[in-house]
Amino acid sequence: MTTAAAATLPPGPRPLIPAVNFLSLRRNRLKFLQGLANEYGELAHFMLGPVPVFLLNNPDAIRDVLITHNKNFMKGEGLQRAKRLLGEGLLTSEGEFHLRQRRLAQPAFHRQRIAGYATTMVEYAAQMSAEWQAGETRDIAREMMRLTLAIAGKTLFGTDVIHEADEIGDALSTTMAAFNRLTLPFSQLIERLPLPSVQRFKQAKKRLDETIYRMINERRQSGADHGDLLSMLIQARDTEGDGTGMTDEQLRDEAMTIFLAGHETTANALTWTWYLLSQNPDVEARLQAEADAVLGGHLPTAEDYPRLKYTEMVLAESMRLYPPAWIIGRRALGDYEINGYHIPAGAILLMSQYVMHHNPKYFPDPERFDPERWTPEAKEARPQFSYFPFGGGPRLCIGENFAWMEGVLVLATLAQQWQMRLAPGHPVELEPLVTLRPKHGMKMTLARRA
């Protein structure tokens, strides 16, 4: 909303040297943002060069930006630059084009269709479980990436990529690591330099493009409808618009976005959950007891999903402490006001799930892992946007229901057979890239349940 009366800026750091904020943010993003929230409260202002930036740490203000006044905002600078990787996919596109693409993709994520994906989710998890050996140490972050990539390939694109999952996963990891460079102000200039990191990014992007275009070509040539996302996108026509379908390039952009976001976020959520369970054996024991009682030794099905309530609570609390999507950025298209403070057109608004989810006003003793925060009564007592792991409003993650079902079913499948313990001496450190990754992976020792 615009106003002429609101002319003051909210509190925030005012360093004498302009580059200090930029360097602090680059050095440790989470520490910098958490520090702003702790010191300045629900709305903080700082400058990044000539650009005014505002950190929102209030659920109502976040709701207004993402829902009530969403038309006054567009995606932030980082995702605008990420178009060089993701093209005009759902994550990066804007305006009418985004609405059109979402209309075309939405049917693939209806609840009934997602329920049909449950069998594949469980089959791949059981297949991974059968490969594991008691007493061995594995990088669970890599294992979960491999698993969710295979699930995404099969359920969304009708392609078995399990045998090339490691190679594709490495290419995806390389592109994710390059995201920090993509968000730099002079990234287009940097990408023209013959730097090793630039070459690795280009090779990884080429590898991913080859995989995705191969899927598209195979599906177009066969003409068959496999009931997956790719089939639906190829056959979809924009009946509310011009009646046309997607070009191969548009299909590639959506596939790349879903490949990147659709498996990466769930893999990280699962990895952090296994870590938290290893540190909280009482919670782990209760989750195992639920899996035993609900499933009775059988593999879970879509019908079991709503009965695995405590497992879902565990996953929700894991995504509170370690939200896979840890920040949302928006650029103001016009002047705006928050609580009497003036937000000028062109300003960047940051809404950090990580910061908001650690707000002691809504989550007392915020560092404590407590799935009981997610009873129906506890959830009802908190404002909606005190917790928003999948965003909100028209840009709400299209795959949210898919991710919840996949996370719960994979946890239940593996928890029937295994418990994991962090390998001695393994460092656990946060790496906030596009998603919140464990910087050094997550090496854990496997123990078969008695």
* Number of H/I helices: 19
Q: What number is the mean pLDDT? A: 88
User: Ends: how far apart?
Assistant: 60 Å
Strand arrangement, major sheet:
1-2-8-5-3
- At the third CATH level, what is the topology name? Cytochrome p450
CATH architecture designation? Orthogonal Bundle
Low-confidence stretches: 1-6
- The class by helix and strand makeup works out as alpha+beta
Q: Can you give the helix content as a percent range?
A: 40-55%
List the helices and strands and how they pair.
Blueprint: H1 19-27, H2 29-40, E1 43-48, E2 51-56, H3 59-68, E3 73-75, H4 77-81, H5 83-86, H6 95-105, H7 111-131, E4 137-139, H8 140-157, H9 165-177, H10 179-182, H11 187-190, H12 196-222, H13 229-235, H14 248-279, H15 281-295, H16 309-321, E5 328-332, E6 336-338, E7 341-343, E8 348-351, H17 353-357, H18 376-380, H19 400-415, E9 418-422, E10 430-432, E11 436-438, E12 443-448
Parallel strand pairs: 2-8
Antiparallel strand pairs: 1-2, 3-5, 4-12, 5-8, 6-7, 9-12, 10-11
Helix pairs in contact: 1-2, 7-8, 7-19, 8-9, 8-14, 9-12, 12-14, 14-16, 14-19, 15-16
